[in-house]
Design a protein that fits this description.
Number of helices: 10
Largest sheet: 7 strands, mixed
CATH topology of the largest domain: Fructose-1,6-Bisphosphatase, Chain A, domain 1
Distance between the termini: 42 Å
Helix content: 25-40%
Order of helices and strands: HEEHEHHHEHEEEEEEHEHEHEEH
CATH superfamily of the largest domain: Fructose-1,6-Bisphosphatase, subunit A, domain 1
CATH architecture of the largest domain: 2-Layer Sandwich
Length: 323
Amino acid sequence: MEAECSIALAAVSRAAGLCEAVRRATGGADAITKDDCSPVTVADFGAQALIIHALRQAFPGDPVVAEEEAGLLHADAALRERVRGFVQQADPAIGPQAMLDALAGGGATGGASGRFWTIDPIDGTKGFIRGDQYAVALALIEDGRVVLGVLGCPYLSDSLSAAADAPRGKLFHALRGGGAWCQPIDGGAPQPVRVSRRAEPAAAVFCESFESGHTAQGRAGAICSALGTTAAPARLDSQCKYAVTARGEADVYLRLPTRADYEEKIWDHAAGALIVEEAGGRVSDIHGQPLDFTQGRTLRRNQGVLATNGVLHEAVLAAIAAA
């Protein structure tokens, strides 16, 4: 996996750089609302094009499951031109057609056999727009198992309580069986990360989304009450919640479905889940079942997600069942 890891790290780092260039230039104020009412930005399209182009150059036979589609760009020449400008600034070798071809190459369906990549070019688009946390996520799945995960967290510092002017930008990665690692996103030696060993539920730090639509916050509050949890939550968007759990700054990331028929998308969890597991934690759905990445583009056999430091997992599952 040396080549795959090297290519993935470089692609995510470059895509994160494009996202920050867009944010500096636009303040995130270029969002478009998709048919599912979620936002998408120039940075989403540009980051995805960069990553898929890099994967195609290195691994031309690998399918890619990605969040964004090229249809909006075909229909909107002005939007297409804005995306093209940022993509060519990041990689002058990618021309207009190559950019569209790359974006069109993310429509694979995944499945239980073979290998494929899955991409979320900006996980936490609302955080990106707000000038807060977001992540660029890339994972490699082989025969239904996540074997490589990379998270670029451009706005994450060494601590969530760091000063506003503290250095920001972290790059996390994990290889199955190879541990979890973090390094500065603009270069530097990777250092191992480990989950906390906190065992007392009352002292557990839960990750909490800014966006109420991402989890059933009322039920989450009831679960915290059942556990006697009194610690202030860590509030942040995106798979950065997996990252801060992996490095021991938080102990629990709980994502409760907001409706019975909701299916989590694989790109929202593949990279982060592996990083937490390789940091010594545990990830399951809210019934304790392993996340099943064999079902195509969604986790249709799972309900919700629970990521913990491992020590607290059974206690949280029991509180979920009681609630």
